[in-house]
Backbone:
């Protein structure tokens, strides 16, 4: 057998085998096909693709599957917000409903000039290391922002920054994914509706006298705000005021009366973040 | 018995010469005294005095709440100024009893009365130790009476007096052994009465020849006692090392000395037991060393609890100008204090003053881990500090538990040896409570699934 015959036989053999396998694959492909909901792929294309997990599903794929099956509402993605919800509702053919935007809010206003120092801290420069020490870091207040910015490092959206010693949320960028809430060892950050203008920027449960010694911007639990509020949306528990964001009418009377100025207008705070 | 050595360990400079030859001197406070209700491991005590009450020396001012807790007694006579939150030595606001000293030191009724302890029953002795608020004076502050009630008392073979004092700079135990060896020996005799079959060992590092001689003299003629000489090395005074020294066996992970038939107590604790049982004197004062390059006059004091550190080391005359940092405890395990206006309590054995902040210097030289393995070689427990630190930095608490991070005694040996100046001990202090919480959750889950 010459070399050229061998070559021709090999080519023919391979071609036949290839053809047979091809036919088999086409057959198997049709026989065992997994039905994919075309909607799921379309929904997935609309989602932002951060895989941040803020929706509570394992990444954007998980949420797309859940929406396509009708298990999750179309406005479940907090990152995409209203525009994405509108696109998805078009695909799914249901009403998007009013997707309320939420943002993170840091309950501390003890900036470098307001919070008093009790000591010098030179240890590991992370919030979790400082929070593990009984006396926390250098600030006299035990409940406030430590200012090493662990929330900043976990934020995927560049929406939280340490400005003048405390973490400040940029509400235009914040998508309320909740990563900073889970990271903060002081449990200072909460997710609140974006429409609420006012928030109580203090977390100290100490009595008024001690708060005064520790910080100029601390809630002293004087209850002046509760008397101002017409809707009864503000209450004082454990020496610190709380606003019920559901019933708050954003009138601002509490903020105007607050002697320690801890009820802050959050819309003003963003400007500080941008100019700093 | 030869000179005992243990695996691992480091050789920090002793600095004992600063205060070793200064005799114990009673320090009388002049201003107000602050008694935090938490000076021990366990539940805080409950104040039993109120504003304007008159108190005497040795009077109960806060009573133990629960089993693992401890009584607190006044160290001076005077008037209660307030019961309010005050800054304690860790920088936390703690409910405290503030007493204004009348400088008369009137003793409370019964304090100082001699009792013949040989006629007391075991229960009476333990009750006396408990009522006197005796806690471990080595630094941990664990209520001593709990240690005296092991699950199997018949298996206790050794009573170990810890006089190693391996921490650099501290000399108050050394002075106690030289000046009042009989108090320690009497205290051990009281403990021996609880465990009649046990033997008593006094463990001392060989850098304290005077203390060794003094203790040998005090125990002469009693064949139940012996002095064990230890090699000078840090952390020789660790409980596990001492148990290994007397029994020749290593303690298992997460076990107590009682598992190998040992009860280990600091020499100062044993002296406190003697005072509590034989002299009816509750624990209200202790030895304290003032040392370090920032201390104007290094000294050994008998300090009354509640005395503010600023009285002992005032800015003028106590601290050298430019002192940057004051540690409560020695340089290896001591904790920095926020300022000197904090009260001294049961667990504090030294004030170490520094002209330079070593942590700040180390932070300046901080580099990445070079995997040299030095921390593993020096760890007295044979742990892997480098792996433990990595687990904490990556917030992987399960990994920390898996590499036996919970066995760490936070002695700082790895930190001392690390050429890259990694802040290992601080990481362990950060991770241990979190890992312990995770451990509890895991255990309750296991029990739940059964």
Residues:
């Amino acid at each position: 057998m010459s070399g050229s015959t061998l070559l021709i036989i090999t080519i023919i053999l391979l071609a036949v085998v290839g053809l047979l396998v091809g036919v088999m694959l086409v057959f198997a492909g049709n026989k065992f096909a997994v039905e994919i909901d075309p909607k799921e792929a379309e929904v997935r294309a609309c989602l932002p693709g951060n895989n941040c997990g803020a929706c509570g599903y394992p990444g954007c794929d998980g949420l797309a599957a859940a929406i396509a099956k009708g298990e999750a509402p179309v406005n479940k993605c907090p990152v995409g917000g209203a525009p994405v919800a509108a696109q998805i509702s078009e695909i799914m053919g249901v009403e998007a409903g009013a997707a309320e935007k939420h943002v993170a809010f840091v309950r501390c206003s003890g900036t470098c000039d307001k919070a008093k120092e009790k000591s010098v801290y030179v240890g590991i420069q992370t919030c979790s290391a400082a929070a593990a020490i009984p006396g926390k870091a250098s600030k006299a207040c035990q409940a406030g922002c430590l200012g090493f910015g662990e929330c900043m490092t976990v934020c995927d959206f560049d929406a939280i920054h340490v400005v003048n010693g405390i973490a400040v949320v940029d509400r235009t960028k914040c998508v309320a994914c909740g990563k900073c809430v889970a990271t903060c060892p002081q449990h200072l950050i909460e997710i609140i509706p974006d429409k609420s203008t006012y928030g109580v920027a203090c977390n100290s449960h100490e009595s008024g006298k001690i708060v005064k010694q520790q910080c100029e911007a601390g809630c002293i639990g004087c209850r002046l705000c509760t008397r101002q509020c017409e809707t009864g949306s503000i209450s004082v528990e454990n020496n610190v005021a709380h606003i019920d964001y559901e019933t708050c009418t954003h009138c601002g009377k509490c903020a105007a009366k607050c002697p320690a100025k801890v009820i802050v207008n959050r819309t003003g705070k963003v400007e500080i973040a941008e100019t700093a | 018995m030869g000179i005992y050595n243990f695996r691992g360990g480091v050789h920090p400079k002793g600095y004992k010469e600063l205060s070793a030859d200064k005799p114990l001197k009673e320090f009388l406070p002049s201003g107000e005294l602050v008694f935090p209700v938490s000076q021990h491991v366990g539940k805080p005590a409950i104040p039993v005095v109120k504003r304007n009450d008159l108190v005497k020396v040795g009077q109960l001012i806060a009573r133990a709440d629960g089993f693992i807790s401890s009584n607190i007694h006044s160290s001076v006579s005077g008037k209660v100024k307030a019961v309010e939150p005050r800054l304690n030595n860790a920088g936390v606001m703690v409910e405290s009893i503030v007493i204004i000293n009348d400088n008369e030191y009137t003793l409370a009724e019964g304090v100082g009365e001699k009792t013949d302890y040989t006629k007391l029953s075991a229960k009476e002795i333990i009750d006396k130790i408990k009522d006197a608020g005796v806690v471990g004076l080595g630094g941990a502050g664990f209520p001593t009476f709990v240690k005296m009630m092991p699950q199997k008392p018949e298996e206790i073979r050794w009573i170990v007096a810890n006089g190693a004092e391996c921490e650099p700079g501290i000399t108050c135990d050394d002075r106690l052994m030289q000046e009042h060896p009989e108090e320690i020996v009497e205290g051990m005799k009281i403990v021996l009465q609880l465990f009649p079959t046990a033997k008593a060992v006094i463990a001392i590092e060989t850098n304290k020849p005077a203390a060794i001689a003094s203790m040998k003299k005090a125990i002469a003629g009693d064949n139940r006692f012996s002095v064990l000489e230890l090699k000078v090395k840090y952390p020789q005074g660790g409980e596990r090392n001492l148990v290994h020294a007397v029994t020749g066996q290593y303690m298992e992970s997460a076990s107590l000395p009682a598992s190998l038939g040992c009860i280990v107590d600091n020499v100062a604790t044993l002296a406190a037991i003697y005072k509590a049982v034989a002299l009816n004197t509750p624990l209200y004062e202790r030895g304290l060393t003032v040392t370090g390059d920032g201390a104007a006059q290094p000294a050994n004091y008998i300090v009354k609890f509640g005395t503010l550190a600023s009285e002992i080391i005032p800015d003028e005359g106590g601290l050298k100008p430019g002192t940057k940092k004051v540690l409560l405890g020695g340089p290896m395990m001591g904790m920095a204090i926020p300022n000197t206006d904090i009260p001294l309590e049961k667990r504090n054995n030294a004030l170490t003053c520094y002209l330079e902040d070593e942590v700040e210097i180390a932070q300046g030289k901080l580099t990445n881990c070079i995997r040299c393995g030095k921390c593993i070689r020096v760890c007295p427990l044979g742990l892997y500090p480098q792996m433990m630190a990595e687990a904490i930095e990556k917030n992987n608490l399960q990994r920390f538990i898996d590499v036996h991070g919970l066995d760490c005694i936070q002695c700082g040996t790895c930190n001392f040896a690390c050429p890259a100046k990694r802040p290992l001990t601080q990481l362990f202090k950060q991770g241990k409570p979190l890992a312990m919480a995770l451990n509890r959750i895991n255990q309750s889950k296991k029990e739940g699934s059964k």
The CA atoms of residues 375 and 414 of chain B lie 4 Å apart. The interface with chain A takes residues 85, 87, 90-93, 336-339, 357, 359-360, 363, 395, 423, 426-427, 429-431, 433-434 of chain B (CB under 8 Å). The mean pLDDT of chain B is 91. The domain at 16-20+112-278 of chain B is CATH 3.40.50.11540 (Rossmann fold).
